[in-house]
Amino acid sequence: MEHTFVMVKPDGVRRGLVGEVIGRLERKGLILERMRLLTIDADLAGRHYGEHRAKPFFGELVAFITSGPVVAMEWSGPKAVAIVRTLMGPTNPADAPPGTLRGDFGTIITENIVHGSDSPESAARELGLFFD
Questions:
Q1: Would you state the pLDDT for residue 50?
Q2: What is the pLDDT of residue 49?
Q3: Catalytic choice (3, 48, 52, 115)
Q4: By the 8 A CB rule, do 51 and 14 touch?
Q5: pLDDT tens by residue, 17-48
Q6: pTM, to two decimals
Q7: Would you say 131 and 71 are in contact if contact means Cβ atoms under 8 Å apart?
Q8: How many helices (H) does the chain have, and how many strands (E)?
Q9: Concatenated DSSP letters for 60-97?
Q10: CA distance 87 to 90
Q11: Is 48 a catalytic residue?
């Protein structure tokens, strides 16, 4: 059983897409383990996006993720990380095929509805940030 971190970002919460995200993950067979609604502060945002700190878009990432409430979740299932990544689609909604969350609901790369861990290691790190 693998665990992964999924977050519905402020744009997804604002647009009422939390239920859509949860429903798609449940229908795929993943199990919702934990969930919380919160507004991320700058400190947590900086730790979450730490690998991007030196990049020119870091400030924009932090500003967006702190702009409103998010829904942080832990999901489990066989190959949970890969399954969530497939359901989300590519980061840029313009490249995401129909049927994926970003393809169906994303608008621009900086507001792409949902975040999901890209490896079991990053899942463990992100789950620790949001739930421990």
A1: 79
A2: 86
A3: 115
A4: no
A5: 999 999 999 999 999 999 999 999 999 999 99
A6: 0.94
A7: no
A8: 7, 4
A9: HHHHHHTSS-EEEEEEEETTHHHHHHHHH--SSGGGSP
A10: 9
A11: no
Q: What is the pLDDT of residues 69-96, one digit of tens each?
A: 999 999 999 999 999 999 999 999 999 9
Task: Report the distance separating Cα 35 and Cα 48, nearest Å.
Answer: 17
The one-letter amino acid at 131: F
Q: What is the pLDDT of residue 118?
A: 96
Residue 15 pLDDT > 90, yes or no?
A: yes
Q: Do residues 113 and 102 touch, judged by C-beta distance below 8 A? A: yes
CATH code of the domain in which 69 resides: 3.30.70.141
* Token couple for 2: 């693998």
Report in angstroms the alpha-carbon separations of 64 from 1, 10, 40, 49, 57.
32, 7, 10, 12, 11
What DSSP character marks residue 100?
S
Which range marks the domain in which residue 88 is found?
A: 2-131
Count structural domains, the chain: 1
